Amino acid sequence: xxxxxxxxxxxxxxxxxxxxxxGRGGIYGLSGGLDSAVVALLCKRAFGADCLALMMPCFGPxxxxxxxxxxxxxxxxxxxxxxxEGVFTQLLQAxxxxxxxxxxxxxxxxxxxxxxxxxxxxxxxxxKHYRVIGTGxxxxxxxxxxxxxxxxxxxxxxxxxxxxxxxxxxADYLGVPREITAKKPTAGLWKGQTDEVEMGFSYKELDSCLxxxxxxxxxxxxxxxxxxxxxxxxxxxxIFLRK
Length: 243
What we know:
Blueprint: H1 3-20, E1 25-29, H2 34-47, E2 51-55, H3 62-74, E3 79-81, H4 85-96, H5 107-110, H6 112-128, E4 130-132, H7 138-143, H8 164-174, H9 178-181, H10 195-199, H11 203-210, H12 217-229
């Protein structure tokens, strides 16, 4: 499918899903990364002024916020900055206690960040009667590379059937600035963190495997293990059914 046709269908889908559910527009987290930049431009086309980009810095690289602001101002996207650093620190202290072992880079701690962002998005979603638009892509969803009830806590996932390489293609079509498309993808959860280093393989390798192309057996096994281990993230909680 051409980027032009894909873009048009995604915009139409967003309008239909949001308006048919009673929403007035869309809200999303704008991190300064590739996926959220694409979602921002799709929402701008779908809803015009009735969209809101929420930037929620929490001890991440300063360049991420700079890139988010760059995109929003270049394309006249309404945005709001909500600094979550103080809330994150206070919550971690409350959870661990004054004498507790506080490691702000443990997975238990860093996963608080996307969950705080989810809470912030739904606050403004309720205030404005918007729907929360997710920024997850197919490559990350299928391998569980997201935080349960964090960045997966959304109403709609427009990129959920697009592999990462397809998102890059769409970003180029939409005119996402080179500062965003050329940098290494990162979740921004700690200093120096990048997606590919954390996963242990590149998005190119991941997408090739997910497309069913010939790849190294060791890579196939690793990706299959990630899919199995993260299956619980992609399903609703099991419900006990009375006999």
